[in-house]
Write a structure and sequence with these properties.
The protein is mainly beta and 118 residues long. 5% of the residues lie in helices and 49% in strands. The longest helix is centred in the N-terminal third of the chain and has 6 residues, at 26-31.
Length: 118
């Protein structure tokens, strides 16, 4: 069973920045599209960012211009750089991986908590 391991969450003040990491095996990282989602208690999971095709990145409307998705192929790691954070960004953040032809995401990480508060 493949694993996605997120890290980098924590407590940050409004206006601050965090960088989340998602590390997986080379097999998944090199062959699957990676994405980030977030979820708060009682809410639907929200799409944050994805790279469905290498070099083409899409973002959710709520994070455009503030969050940046990137990948480090040498480390099999995807990143989510989050800037100008607001309390509304407080959530558990998940990375996910989708295989070619899959209609949904095949693998999910365990999630990392991000709390934006003064």
């Amino acid at each position: 069973q493949e694993q996605l391991v997120e890290s980098g969450g924590g407590l940050v003040q409004p206006g601050g920045s965090l960088r989340l990491s998602c590390t997986t095996s080379g097999r998944v990282f090199n062959n699957y599209a990676m994405a980030w989602f977030r979820q708060t208690a009682g809410e639907e999971r929200e799409f944050i960012a994805a790279e469905p095709v290498i070099g083409k990145i899409s973002y959710g409307d709520s994070v455009k211009g503030r969050f940046t998705f990137s990948r480090d192929y040498a480390r099999n790691t995807a990143y989510l750089q989050m800037n100008r954070l607001t309390p509304e960004d407080t959530a558990v953040y998940y990375c996910a991986a989708r295989g070619v032809g899959s209609t949904g995401y095949d693998y999910w990480g365990q999630g990392t908590q991000v709390t934006v508060s003064s």
